[in-house]
Specification:
By secondary structure, this protein is of the alpha+beta class. Helix content is 44%, strand content 15%. A hairpin with a 2-residue loop joins strand 1 and strand 2. The relative contact order is 0.14.
């Protein structure tokens, strides 16, 4: 009887031990599930918060672009500023807005070869190479007759390089298309991108408001003329009437006589919680029509990662 009782106790003890181990495994599994769920909830909350901030910021950015457009529209064309900035407060958000004429950039679709070549020289290219790069851009945008497609030397240039495409033989759709132009070093493309556009439609540039790199690209521009222009601008005495005295006759012919109708608008939205959103748009002010302006380009990014939209490289 004693032996039987001892055996029974051992079996009970073994079962108890198994039950304890099983319970511990279940508790560990539950703890793991709780941890996973906590991570999921946290990530979901972060995603919802970011999405909510974007939803809040988008209409504010749109409002800022409209404010800039109406400020430009409300001024007579001959008195319209080529560059400007202002701030506004909407609810608890603060809007910082800057605008600048697209004529302050070099238009890839309209600029003549000397201006394009000068831009690459100002970016560090040798003059002979810069001429070749300008030729590549002009060949990309130049239309050719359908019967000449198979014999076009530029098409052959791309085919010989093993590329699966040929030049557009039409206007650049956006400045990013410059990356597709074969024969231009990518390092140079990266340097010139902040100073080019496809929206001004002008063969000249607005020297009064352009970045130094753009002014330096003007054919015949000398270091002395460049420094004189920048000094006059810093002193607040530079205007289109003063340009002939600072430029030679040839350089003056490369200067735009007016800011045009295309403007780049940079917007920064500072939210009450410390977060920031930024956007950059290019708008066109038409002569007439059912809408006061058209948006030609738009890009934005939460927390202001949009290519420094408040600084157009004018300094």
């Amino acid at each position: 009887m004693i032996a039987v009782s001892a055996a029974a106790q051992r079996r009970a003890s073994g079962n108890d031990g198994f039950i304890i181990v099983a319970v511990l495994w279940i508790l560990a599994a539950l703890a793991a599930l709780v941890s996973v769920y906590a991570i999921y909830v946290t990530n979901t909350a972060i995603a919802v918060a970011a999405s909510g901030e974007a939803v809040m910021a988008d209409p504010l950015v749109s409002a800022a672009v409209e404010l800039a457009a109406y400020q430009l529209i409300g001024t007579q064309a001959e008195d319209r500023p080529a560059v400007g900035h202002f701030t506004a407060r909407v609810g608890t958000a603060r809007l910082t807005v800057a605008f600048q004429t697209e004529a302050a950039r070099i238009d890839l679709n309209a600029a003549p070869k000397p201006l394009l070549s000068g831009l690459f020289v100002s970016a560090g290219a040798q003059p002979l190479n810069a001429d070749s790069y300008a030729d590549r851009i002009i060949a990309w945008r130049t239309k050719i007759a359908a019967q000449n497609i198979d014999t076009d030397p530029e098409n052959s240039f791309y085919s010989a390089a093993g590329l699966s495409y040929t030049p557009r033989h039409g206007p650049f759709a956006n400045v990013g298309e410059l990356w597709l132009v074969h024969g231009i070093p990518q390092a140079l493309i990266e340097r010139v991108l902040p100073y080019v556009t496809v929206y001004s439609g002008k063969a000249q540039v607005d020297i009064v408001d352009a970045a130094p790199q753009v002014i330096a690209a003007v054919p015949g521009m000398t270091p002395e003329s460049l420094q004189g222009i920048l000094a006059a601008r810093a002193a607040g005495t530079l205007d289109r009437a003063a340009l002939p005295s600072l430029l030679g006759q040839s350089e003056a012919g490369s200067s735009s006589a007016d800011p045009g109708k295309s403007f780049r608008v940079g917007v920064r939205v500072d939210l009450a919680n410390g977060r920031r959103s930024a956007a950059e748009a290019v708008i066109l002010l038409p002569e007439d029509g059912p809408v006061p302006y058209r948006v030609l380009s738009w890009r934005n990014a939460l927390d202001g990662t949009t290519d420094q939209p408040m600084d157009f490289g004018r300094q």
